[in-house]
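Q: I have 546 residues here and want to know how they pack in 3D. Can you give me a structure?
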Amino acid sequence: MQRSSWLGRLVDVVQHTSFPTIHSVSSRCTMPARFSIGASLLFQYTHNQHAAHTTKRSCNASVHSICTPCHVEDLRKRVRENADAGSLMVTSHHKQQLFCKTPHEFGRERIVPISYLFCLVAMDAVKEILSDPLKIAGALALAYFLQTILNYATAPKNTPPFYYESPYIPWLGSLVQFATGPREFLQRAAKAKGSCFTIQLFGKQMTFLTGTEGHQHFFKAREHVFDIREAYAMTVTTFGPGVCYDCPQSKMAQQFAFFKDGLSDSSFVKYMDLVQDEVANYFEREWGDEVRAASWERKLESDGMHLEWRNITVLMEASYRDGTTLTTTEITGILIGVLLGGQHTSNVTGTWLLAHLLKDKEWLDKVMEEQDKLFEGKEGKLYPNTLSYEEVQNMTIFDQVMSETLRLHPPFFQLSRFAKESTEFEGMVIPKGHIVNVSPGAAHRLPELWGENAEDFDPNHFTAEAKKEHKPYAYIPFGGGMHQCGGRKFAWNSLKVSLSWLLRNYELEFVGKGASELPKEDYTTMVVAPTSSHTHVKYRRRKVAA
């Protein structure tokens, strides 16, 4: 074989997408070109006794250097030019440039850099694969298979058990089952695998903690272990940059602290008359009097409170600890967060509460009896009088109903963190990189936590005696730990004031689908709301007592 014949074949390889067969110069065996280029050249390097001493440094530079990005046609052109000149082409690891040497300086064999060859072969292989949909699918399946093997080989042996159901779709995992019935799916997983298990969604390993010990492990973990910001990084598209989860923990805590005083119990005492006036004006304006309202139908969820945010000046005048003031983008993003985390969640919770009361006359009667007692001795009885802050705190039956509503329908179905470090739980290792979750929506209905009637609406779960039996972290509608909802008391009091006013002043009745069955959960929304087709009501104004 001529000294330059293998180089001519190699030039032919890099000029065409379909690779011919290459005969190794030294071994004289036939191998597919795509897999033999590197092996053949390396074999030449090690067996060329005449050039071994001279080319040792250059060969190392060729093998270990990194090929700088370059268009494939330009690479092919350079290979052809150097092949025609009978010269050796290598890539300098230190200078990051090409240079040529004549054959007599490095021995008898003409050599091209292996890094270029690998680059060219990879580019042509990708080009060939992308030309055929079946090859694309095969390549993706192979990549997924190799990634699965790699994950399995490198993962700790005592990781949480993996749960899946058929049909199981590679990469997507149990998406179909989770999307169509997430609560039932997680409850089946907990029954089969225990209080800690892993599922796969969109290629992500999602580890769920469903028991009280798991909830405690989740909420008590430090930020450098379970990171909330990385888990909710996608919220930047909603709140904007530099707000909430798109900023360091210290800055996020300062942003939440701006509202601390405004959401306190002492502040709500000042808002009592304002809240009741806003509610009365809204329903007078939107629902009207008895004659107009008699034939109207409304959606419960559309009739939430529309309180204006009157303390926007708090944000405009606020500043961080370093003295810098908030930007317009930050003020806007924080207000959006307040609306989503406060008004929308309260609206949905109020809708669920009314839905349960309208379907359960026994508890509706108990609520109304409590309202009667609060207004005993007051002129006009249930209306149009208002309540004081102290009277609102004495609504124990209403508190039970509210608590049970939040147990069955927590505003957020699941809460997530990103595992920045591996952590141990009950002898299992939750690996770094997993998305760790707790699901109030699923855990609140587990029989082992809430008894055999866990699926039923029963406010007796929250009597004074029953609450003493609750396990720590069994009830988590507002989350827990350092990220527990800071506005929970404000929301609680606002709902009690507004909904009790509505029930005192209007008689409500389901119509349409809601008349025959309780609304279903709509899991397509961030806050799990009732299906809109089941929330139509008709109403009439109660008559003023004589």
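Q: Anything worth noting?
A: The first helix runs from residue 5 to 15. The mean pLDDT is 77.
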